Structure prediction request, 382 residues.
Amino acid sequence: MIQIKDKLPQVGTTIFTVMSQLAREHNAINLAQGFPNFDMPQRLKDLVNEFVQKGCNQYAPMTGLPALNNGLSAKIANLYDAKVDALTEITVTSGATQAIYTAITAFVSLGDEVILIEPAYDCYRPAIELTGGIPVIYELAAPDFKVNWEDFGKLISERTKLIIVNTPHNPTATTFGVSDWEALEKLTNDTNILILSDEVYEHIIFDGEPHQSILRFPNLWERTIATYSFGKTFSNTGWKIGYVVAPSYLMRIFRKVHQYNVFSVHAPSQFALAEFLEDKKEYLQLGNFYQEKRDLFQELTESSALKFFPSKGSYFQLADYSAISDEKDMDFSIRMTKEYGIGVIPVSAFYSSGRDEKLVRFCFAKTPDVLEAAGEILRKLS
Ligand code: PMP
Ligand code: GLN
Prediction:
């Protein structure tokens, strides 16, 4: 064997793959990895078939199909009162993961610091490390998982290049309010710091709260790269299509990388999405749709010995199991899967420090029969 340096020595297989695999092996209900167990809208399936048959099968433009970019620009204007140019400020990507990876690669150089709020979705940190950046971690704590912006500000240095935020938040299911953005605006004013705002759950937000997109804040816009995912919005995580929004001077730089690591995204799906997007109901009703699932899951687990945290957005819910066990969260998650037949994600997997607050994450993007079966098991835990 040749001598080779592993660029990500700390990294194994993602927790989502590991826990989904374990759930399969033990025939457990998989509430671990975040994906719906129901199918995507039939009309979108029909549309993609139609465009394949019509012969829309050659490369789409590198930046995204103009009809789709136009539709997205109109949606953003409508929802967030923001003027985003369809051709120069939106790029269609292979899911939000690629958008995030490409953004980090395009903007972060060797020795740059990137501030991450943990627990954090797992793809941010490896991308920073691969590009030679230095992750600087701000840890959120249970039970409210709120950012104390004064403490956060102490992490900003001359070398800070990028701050990554995520709302609605995976895994804590919390959301940013106006005051969070205002605090971030104050901290970054008169700096050259960029903000990557991961908003893949923009439409999965509850209790009548509007999604506070960074795009609503004109003073933050000049430093923004925002990422989105059709997979979450149209229940087709397997399509891996998303988009990124940024001011044109940043998008020019983003596209220099995007054109060489992806070039362009599956064309017939973009034709289908452009047409499907015209029906606003399809995304505007999503919050209510998932709120029903959240409420059902809450009701079904009310008498469980697990203590569930409120979910304000995303399709996740955290639960504290400390009344049942003092095992490490990874051990408890494995036991939940093997012995009780429910796959979950240990929250320590979202912290670089491995911080273990005896919490597990459930995904409630499931049909009522599955939530009921899980509820029955969870109510018996003691
Ligand atoms: N960010 C967050 C917070 C997520 O939960 C996900 C979903 N897996 C992604 C990004 C990636 O989205 P996609 O599947 O479109 O790559
Ligand atoms: N976003 C999903 C989750 O948080 C999983 C995505 C993945 O498996 N990479 O569970």
